[in-house]
Write a structure and sequence with these properties.
This protein is mostly beta strands. It has a single domain, classed as Pnp Oxidase, Chain A, CATH 2.30.110.10. It is 10% helix and 42% strand. The strands form two sheets. A two-stranded antiparallel ribbon has the order 1-2. A two-stranded antiparallel ribbon has the order 3-4. β3 and β4 form a beta hairpin. The longest helix has 8 residues. It starts with a helix and ends in a 12-residue tail after the last strand.
Length: 77
């Protein structure tokens, strides 16, 4: 999907990417991309700053998955 490639290559600090995708809000108020078959809603627990980069340590709060993303046991495949 061209929008996903673009979103992954442009800094959110330099450009607003909020209108690239149609979305709805999840239980935690996170925007969930409507076309995505798998979405995880996370809380940021910590941020590690290094030169020119930030690493986010997160806890998964909610997972939304289309049935086609699940195996026979109902787990994400």
């Amino acid at each position: 999907m061209p929008q996903a490639d673009y979103a992954g290559s442009v800094s959110g600090e330099k450009e607003d990417k909020g209108n690239l995708f149609a979305y709805e809000l999840g239980e935690g108020g996170t925007p969930l991309i409507e076309k995505s078959p798998l979405v995880m809603e996370c809380t940021v627990d910590d941020i590690y700053n290094t030169p020119n980069f930030e690493s986010f340590i997160c806890t998964i709060d909610n997972t939304y998955a289309e049935e086609g993303c699940l195996n026979e046991e109902g787990n994400i495949d």
